[in-house]
Write a structure and sequence with these properties.
The chain has a single domain, classed as Orthogonal Bundle (Cytochrome p450). A hairpin with a 5-residue loop joins β7 and β8. The mean pLDDT is 86. The strands form four sheets. The protein has a four-stranded mixed beta sheet. Helices cover 49% and strands 9% of the residues. The termini are far apart. The structure holds protoporphyrin IX containing FE (HEM). The site of protoporphyrin IX containing FE has 23 residues, from α14 and α18. Protoporphyrin IX containing FE binds next to α14 and α18. One of its GO terms (molecular function) is steroid hydroxylase activity. Keywords: Heme, Iron, Metal-binding, Monooxygenase, Oxidoreductase. This is Cytochrome P450 3A24.
Length: 510
């Protein structure tokens, strides 16, 4: 009896153990890639590669720790796929600017959905170049001037919320305040709509997708996710279909009746032409949804952290307010009058405050490029590192912005970093144009041909809100203000934070 049981047990366990060993070997088959090439990096785990910690532990903290521990260039694994993280300013210039022709793609986004597969951010090669060329026209200064009035209208709700908080003496949650503002700005500019409950619900579904979606996107093979059975999309299909219906109706209305034409992004996208070529209806819809999903949360975060920093630094807030009031007085703009487009760019100090906020709390923690062909990088020691075709190169922006190698006392909010000149004559103000790699990396919007196409719009939207707020209100630290802020893991390279509370006082009565 004992012998039979023993044999049966062996019969069961041997294949099982064999299966586990084979699976382990399969899932770790590439995990020696970087060690064989002498490139340091975190230790990979089967199935997860080096990603597990970043999904469950704060992404930005782990990026900072890794840059300190492994240096400017280190290897990672997404599941079994090797990837490279590059934080060396000279190599970044090489990748993002000088050899951008080799690195203009990002990772392939797996989807069969017609909206998502046309996103400018995920298009590759010639289709990306074509759509980028057309969409770029939408963000030229003249075009932005024509949509500027939408910002002014969107500020009304912002002012009402601040008035309410000031009158009741209650703290205001900056995340809610600016979330509502930036959602209204983008809804008005892309969908000619003031957001109602249904709109907000569908829009929110585009940014709050569960982590397993992103996890599948990073680790599973493309053929599997694209298959008829799975038809995987990182963004939820219902939300995208909702926006598709709105846009199709708006485009049809505007084409049918010329008087339905409006000054907004949708119109600019409909009219963008290059050598007779224009965007198709699906392409217009894709870019509108994309502007929504990439423009809403990032811009709202920028405003939130900017006001938070000013509330914690009353002297800097006073200095900025003084400068803004001087500019508004010189331009003859009375107390509650609209703020014209041309005035928005006149304060160097305002630009410096925004730049320093973007350094300290840059919303996009890491950027990516993918090699269209093999390319050899030479690190500082002269060592050659081969970036194979289709390998993803990550740029650890948060870690670079928080490194004392580039920014002394990096946790201090100090807009002076972006004013005047360095001892060697290098213009710091150049950084406040929101893109620099060498000698000091400052990359809140990326750099090179694949940078953020909405930079000017985001800055315009931010400056408009800040000018209106600082002209009339004082923001203060209260017992409810958390110092320092606590960030939580979002499962994606975007900063995530709970409520950000500050107090508000109205400076004058109109
Ligand atoms: C503070 C606000 C914003 C920040 C910090 C931000 C940051 C970024 C970053 C870091 C990238 C990647 C750049 C690269 O890979 O080099 C990006 C790409 C992009 N951003 Fe923004 N963004 C902001 C607002 C906006 C807005 C308001 C829009 C549109 C209305 C927008 C549209 C885009 C698009 C379409 C891309 C992809 C461009 C391409 O692949 O060709 N962004 N953004």
């Amino acid at each position: 009896m004992f012998i039979i049981l023993h044999l049966t047990g062996r019969l069961v366990w041997c294949p099982f153990a064999g299966f586990i060993i084979c699976l382990y070997c399969f899932l770790t088959r590439t995990h020696g890639y970087w060690a064989e090439r002498g490139v340091p990096g975190p230790r990979p785990l089967p199935l997860f590669g080096t990603y597990l910690g970043q999904f469950f532990y704060s992404f930005h903290v782990s990026e900072e720790e890794r840059l300190k521990k492994f240096g400017h260039v280190y290897g990672i694994y997404e599941g079994t796929k090797p990837g490279l993280i590059v934080g060396d300013p000279v190599l970044l210039k090489d990748i993002m600017v000088q050899h951008s022709a080799t690195f203009y793609n990002r990772r392939s986004v797996k989807t069969t959905h017609p909206v998502m597969s046309n996103f400018l951010s995920s298009l590759e090669d010639k289709p990306w170049k074509r759509v980028r060329g057309l969409v770029r026209k939408t963000f030229k200064p003249r075009e932005l001037k024509s949509v500027h009035h939408l910002l002014q209208d969107s500020c009304l709700a912002l002012i009402a919320s601040l008035d309410h908080a000031a009158a009741t003496g209650s703290d205001i949650d900056l995340k809610n305040l600016f979330g509502a503002y930036t959602m209204e700005v983008i809804s008005r500019s892309c969908f000619a709509t003031v957001p109602d409950e249904e709109f907000v619900r569908n829009a929110s579904s585009l940014f709050t997708f569960p982590f397993w979606r992103k996890f599948c996107d990073y680790t599973m093979p493309k053929w599997f996710l694209d298959s008829w059975l799975v038809q995987f999309t990182v963004l939820p299909k219902a939300g995208m279909d909702f926006f598709r219906n709105i846009t199709t109706r708006l485009i049809a209305d505007r084409l049918a009746e010329p008087q339905n034409r409006r000054n907004d992004f949708l119109q600019l996208l409909m009219e963008a032409k290059h050598e007779g070529d224009g965007l198709s209806e699906d392409e217009i819809l894709s870019q509108s949804v994309l502007f929504y999903s990439v423009g809403y949360e990032t811009s709202s975060q920028l405003l939130t952290y900017c006001i938070y920093c000013l509330a914690l630094n009353p002297d800097l807030q006073d200095r900025l307010r003084k400068d803004l009031i001087r500019i508004l007085t010189e331009a003859n703009i009375s107390c509650d009058a609209d703020i014209p487009y041309d005035v928005l760019d006149q304060s160097d100090y305002l630009s410096a405050v925004i730049a320093e906020t973007l350094r300290l709390y840059n919303p996009v923690l890491r950027m990516e490029r993918k090699a269209v062909e093999s390319y050899i990088l030479h690190d500082q020691t002269g060592k050659e590192i081969l970036v194979e075709k289709d390998m993803v190169v990550g740029i650890p922006v948060w870690a670079l912005h928080h490194s004392d190698e580039f920014y002394p006392d990096p946790e201090r909010f100090d807009p002076e970093r972006f004013l005047g000149e360095d001892e060697d004559g290098w213009k710091k103000r150049a950084r406040s144009k929101f893109a620099n790699v060498d000698p000091v990396p400052f990359l809140p919007f990326g750099i090179g041909p694949r940078n953020c196409i909405g930079t000017r719009f985001a800055i315009m939207e931010t400056k408009m809100a800040l000018m209106i707020i600082l002209r009339d209100y004082r923001l203060m630290k209260t017992a409810g203000t958390k110092v320092p802020l606590k960030f939580f893991p979002t499962g994606r390279p975007l900063l995530g934070c709970d409520k950000v509370l500050v107090g508000v006082r109205k400076l004058k009565t109109n």
